[in-house]
Amino acid sequence: MTCLRLIALVTVFVLLASAEDQNYSFSSLVGSGSGTPYRIEGDERVTGVRVWSQSSYISSIQLRYGYIWAERAGLHSGTMQEFLLFDDEALVQISGKYSHYIHSLVFVTSRGRSLMVMGNPSGESFNMYPEHEQAELRFLSGTYHAYLTGISAHWAEFHESRNEDTM
Questions:
Q1: Residue 25: inside a domain, yes or no?
Q2: 89 with 95: CB under 8 angstroms?
Q3: Considering the chain, what is the average pLDDT of its residues?
Q4: Is the model's pLDDT at 6 over the cut of 70?
Q5: Which PROSITE patterns does the record associate with it (predicted)?
Q6: Which domain holds residue 133?
């Protein structure tokens, strides 16, 4: 078992232990999994995604939580496409193509809107989605070595902070 896969499994078990009733599920890593691990996460609901592509591959990815963009994962070059979500809209599916690198990505929302970022449309196909109907994308993890070499999705229900109920 590779070190990255072991880290991913430990992450899943930790999240499952703390997930309580969030209906957590995990879409397994696609791609070669070689290179530097990344994890893009935030405390708010995912409200946007940016994807950079260069030549035939996806070079980097970034998620927005609330109004804050999380740290970008991958090579800091390429052509960027940005997709902002509407209020109460969520990312509910990620698909694309991969070989050693991630070639293309398609993000689909709960309203049926989508962002398609194409590098080279060849390779193995993948399709990621939550196991639970009310769950949505909460964070991404994977690897990069210049371009993205791996991506996995983590799904759970989003609940507003319980502190708002007591204010």
A1: yes
A2: no
A3: 88
A4: no
A5: JACALIN_LECTIN
A6: 3-158
Number of domains into which the chain is organized? 1
Q: What is the pLDDT of residue 4?
A: 52
Q: Is the pLDDT of residue 27 over 90?
A: yes
The two tokens of residue 93 are 């599916």
Block residue for tokens 């072991």 = 6
Helices (H), the chain: 3-18
List the one residue out of 57, 95, 60 whose CA is nearest residue 77: 60
Structure tokens at 24: 């957590």
CATH of the domain at 33: 2.100.10.30
Would residue 107 count as lying in a domain?
yes
**H or E stretch at 57:** strand 57-65
For the chain, how far is it from start to end, CA to CA, in angstroms?
48
Query: On the CB side of 56, how many CA atoms lie within 13 Å of its CA?
Result: 9
| Within-domain flag for 167 | no
